[in-house]
Structures are given as C-alpha cells and as structure tokens.
User: What shape does this take?
Amino acid sequence: MTALTDPMGFLLFTKGPLFNIAIAIFALGLLARLAEILLLGRRPNFAEPRAGEWLPGLRTVVTRTLPDPGTFKRAPFNVVTGLIWHIGFLVALLLFIPHIELIKGLFGVSWPGLPNPFVDLVTAVTLVALAATLVHRLNHPVKKRLSTVEDYLVWTVTFLVVLTGYLAYNRLINPYPLALGLHILSAELFLIILPFTKLTHIFTAFIARWYNGASFGRRGVQS
Amino acid sequence: MTAKKHSVGEHLRDQGVSRRAFLKFCTASASLMALPPGLIPAMAAALEQARRPSVIWLSFQECTGCTESLTRSHAPTVEDLILEMISLDYHHTLQAAAGEAAEAAREQAMKDNFGNYLLIVDGSLPGPDANPGYSTIAGVSNYAMLMEAVEGAAAVIAVGTCAAFGGLPEAAPNPTGAVAVMDLIKDKPLVNVSGCPPVPMVISGVLAHYLAFGRLPELDEYHRPLAFFGQSIHDRCYRRPFYDKGLFAETFDDEGARAGWCLYRLGCKGPSTYNACATMRWNAGTSWPIEAGHPCLGCSEPRFWDAGSFYAPLSVPTDLSSTQVLTAGAAGALVGGTVATLARRTVETAAASRQPVTADELEQTL
Amino acid sequence: MPALSSIPVRVQTMPCGTTDCGNAVPILHEVRHALERLIATGEGTQIDLNAIPFGPEDEAHLLAVLGVGEVRATIDALGPTHVQETAIPGVWLIDYRITEDQRLALHLDIGDIPEILRTQRQDLDTALTTLDARLTSAQDRAPFEY
Assistant: This one.
C-alpha cells in the first residue's frame, strides 16, 4: 500500500518528499534572486544628499501600496479587483488556521487566525475577483496584446491554489485526502515557479517601492 | 459445529428467540449498518430465510486486538446472535481445539464448504518475495495458507488495518516485507474493515449484511463498506461546529480543551479519516477518542503509522527538515552572490577597457 | 458508568435556544415533517438517533423538547426495550437495550403505535397450541389450585 495512485499515498507524497523538494527550490531560487538584486545595488551617487533616504523610502512603500486617485480614475477595475483579490489571497494565506499551523511547524512563529467561515467567504470573493481579472485581460485589446505565456501561467497557478483550497475546505472533492493533496500540490507548484516568474514581486515589490522613495528623498524630490 | 442445516430463522427459534427479539435484533443490526429504519422489515424477512455460512478466520501478523474488539463489543447479546448465525469453523485464538486437531478442522471445513465459506483474515503477512519464516502457523507460511484458503472462499473479509492496508508490520522500514491481503487477492470479492482495531459493530455489521442480503455491502475505493466508511470523522464529528467557528484547543490542558473545542491544532486526523467512530462510538457507546479529548489518529487509513506525528496538525508536512531549507537558502544566496559578483566584474572590466571614440570613428562604423 | 460521569470535565456545547443546539434542532424539524406526513397519509416514520452525530447534550435537549406523554411500556425480549410516548401525540421514543442495560439503538417512531408493541403474527402461530397445552395441564390439576 505505497502506491501513489491511492488518495492517501498521493497526500503523503505531497506532504512529504514533494513538499521538501518544492520548499528547497523556492528557498534556493528566491535567495538567489534577492542576493543578486541586493548585492548588485545601484550605481554609487557622489552628489551630496539633500534629504534623508529612509523616511521617504518608507513613505513610498505606503503611498504606492494605496491606490492614488489618478490611477483609480484611469483604471478603476484594475485598482478595485486587484486590491480585492490581493487582500483576499493574503487573508486566506496568512489567517486560515491550518495555514498558521503550517507556518508554525516550519518557522515556529504563529499568530491568531480568523474563523473558518469568514476565510471561506473571503476565498469565494477572491476566486470571483481572480476570474474577473482573467476575463478583463482577455477582453481588453491592449492587455491581451501585452500578455505573455508567463502571465497566463502565473494566473493559472494562483487560481488553482485558491480554487483547490476552496474545494478542499468545503469538501467538494472526495475523498478528502485527494482534495487536500491537490491543494498542497498546487501550492507547491506556486512555490516552485515563484522565484522564476513575476510572482517574485511578492518579495521585490516593497524593495522596489522603497528604492524609488529613497532615491527621490535623497534628491529632495517629493515622492 | 454443524453448518447450513437450518436457515437462520429456524436456528434462532430453536434457541428460543421470540419474534419481537428477532425484530429487535434486526433493528440493532440495521442501526449498526447505518441502514434506514424503513429497511428493517425487508431485512428481517431475508435473515429469516438465510443459510448459516461457514467462516474460516485466519490470524497472521496481528496483535489479536481485532478479535478482542469483536468479542468485547458492546452488545454481547446481539454479537452472540450474529455468531449464532454463522458457523465459525476455525479461529485459532477462540477455538478449543489446538495443534493438529485445529488444522484438521480447518481443512475439513474448507473441503465441506468449498466455494461457499467466508474467509476472514486479520493481520498482514510477509509477501511472496519476503522471507516466509517471519510468520508461520503449524509450519506453513502465511502466504501459502492464505492462498490455499482463498481458493474455495466465496468472499474475503480483511479485518483490521494490518490485513486491509499492511498496518504496523508494513510501516517503514517494513522488516518482514509485509503486504496487505488485497495486494495478493485480486479475483475474489473482498471487503476491508480497517481500523486499529475496527469498530466491533462494523465487523459484525458486515457479517449481518452478508447474511441478510447474500452479498457484500457497497464499497469505497479502498474496498471498505460505504455504510461505515462513507463519511469522514470530521463530517460526523459533534465538535465540527467549533471547527466552523474557529474555536480550537491549543494544548491538552487549556480552556479550549476543557470546553471541548475542536482538536485540529492538536493533530486530529478526522478530516482525512473515514470511519464510523463518531456515530457508533466505543465501549458500549460510552464515548470515542475525540469525545474523550484526544485527536483522531487516523487508524483506519492506509499508512497511518508513516503519516507524520499523531500530534502534528494535518496541514503540517510530514518530514520537515529546517536544515534542508536553510541549506537550500544558503546555496541560493551563494548563487545569487556569485551572479552579482560576476555581473559587477563584467561591468568593471568593460569600464576599464573603455577607449575614447571620436565622432569620425563612430561614423565609419555605421 | 458512574466513574466516568464523576470526572470533573464539563463539555461545552453550542448555545441552545437562540440559534441552534448542535444537531438536535434539525432532528426536531425532521420529526415535524414526519408528523405532517402521518397526518396527511397515515404513513409512519422511524428515525434512528444512533446515526446522528450527537454531542453530549444534544440528546438531552431533544428529549427535553419532546417531553413525556401518557403511555409507557417495557418489552422483555433480548433485554429490555423501553417504549415511551412523548408529550407530542404520535411521537414515540423507543430505547432498545440489552440485559446489561446498555443501549443497542434509540429510535423515534412517528406513527399510531410502534411495530414492536403489536402482537407479532409469527408468534400467533403458536398461540393456540400454547393455550391448549396450558388448558390441558390446568384440567389435570385440582380446581382449588387456581
């Protein structure tokens, strides 16, 4: 009874060897990317700084995260849907109790979670918002032209992670070990492609925002 | 032991069982098989006419916990009746005969009832490629005995997780090369009654079903009867409302544990475990592990011994190695650092070897 | 089992009354549907309470709502079976027990009278012979013995 074809064997494979492989590829890839970015740094600026770097940098991290009125007026759909599903994804990822247990098991840190039905609702909204982004991308002539295979790959894997999680929690796939195994498998795919696709923005977006603000601040420009 | 002389109904009436008692017995059997009460009259009619089958029970690499479970089940009267309805012709723990007499009884029963007897197996057995010496009965290897006995069996019931899935003997590193019964038997109707041990009423429920309907019950993909294994512990758990509200015990002695909240964070495998404990309970229906405050171990599922810690939540990977993650991260940092250094060196080399160019020279290259 | 109940652990259940009481309320609604069916068509219903995932206090809550009615009977076959009419006419509680007073099954029977209380046709087969045998043995004895 060690066959991969049976649901429990599949679950134990995704929870065991495959998880270790995925997390190793993720750690290796992400650290390689971050080390490269941070070590390369920027060309040294010999001009005398007009103001500090840290405060403007941190301010930009906040201001560029919040939607500004101009962008909202130009592309309200992007701002609203984007915010909804990003927040939903983070809530499901970080505040669902089984996920908190996983993080606690991995890193030993934990925090309080949210009641499951609330996370379930948030997940459903996230799924709808994600589906809407795809429809929008396919119907918008400019975005359709700009989209690459990577964009669709990233969307598919992200959607699969949320979808399988929703199906597993609501026990819509039977038996449950199969449902949970599929969810873990798609999360592992997400981890594996993360460092090598634009999913890396999860880690680099805030670095980039800080960089921008710091650079503006140094030159005394409002960021 | 005289098999098949009477129908079950006649046999029970000979034992002085009244019609109301028989109805009550059918009610109890239907209840334990999770059949709707509306089926009781049909079941009573079928049982009345059923023939008593011969049963041969083989015990291989096992701890006798399954037999203990069956013989100490909560309704001795009903169990007695079910045992009255079958003719248990060989069970080397329960029978009075020993040694050659016992083996002779088995061979006789197999010969007399060839093609019709029920074969019950508890325990796993060393597979055909393993050293047969790890487990023998009367000098015969388990494998040889099973293969001989299965020849004339009408159906096979694997009782307990060892027989159904390999269980403890099959757990890593599986020193005896143990395999499950269903790994060896492919051409006979087979039922797995898993659990370590199985809920006793499930064992007798499968027997009662076979008697009442003349065939084995409907099965899931692991050959387990759906009536008992069709729903997960989680789906039938009375603590489920706490899971849904996000109320969890975090240690075995906190407020949540005292208030009977959900045991997910303490490692409960209820969501991935299919068994009947939540409704049938244990020890005369007194309680069951989760009601007693202990998370479900998942004992009725394949490879439950190798599925990580009993006390780690279901979402936690089974063999976490933080050193592996740290090593991978360190290797990644090294790779990134090397790439960055190489890139910087390329830029520096290019800058160092840069030569001034005049507009004329540039024009010539165009 | 008195030892078990003396363990000072009190299990909390979902608050009753306001919104839900674990699984007792759905069963009460099932009983309501069965009663409607009984009134409309005369068809009875049996509900097996063992098949319901009850928490420790669900059963008490259910029985408290149903209450106690006029009829109470005990059948002595394979151990005692207690039949109790609830305060809701047509709703019967049947507690099947074995000699050691452990429960085999607990049914709600929605109908005129539970089947197990009726005289069984199969047992009637032996009624005349049994009575005849007793008449004969009674005639053999002196009248004053009665």
Notes: Chain A touches chain B through 46 residues (CB under 8 Å). Residues 11-38+48-218 of chain A form a domain with the Fumarate Reductase Cytochrome B subunit fold (CATH 1.20.950.20). Chain A has a mean pLDDT of 89. Residues 47 and 149 of chain A are 42 Å apart (CA to CA).
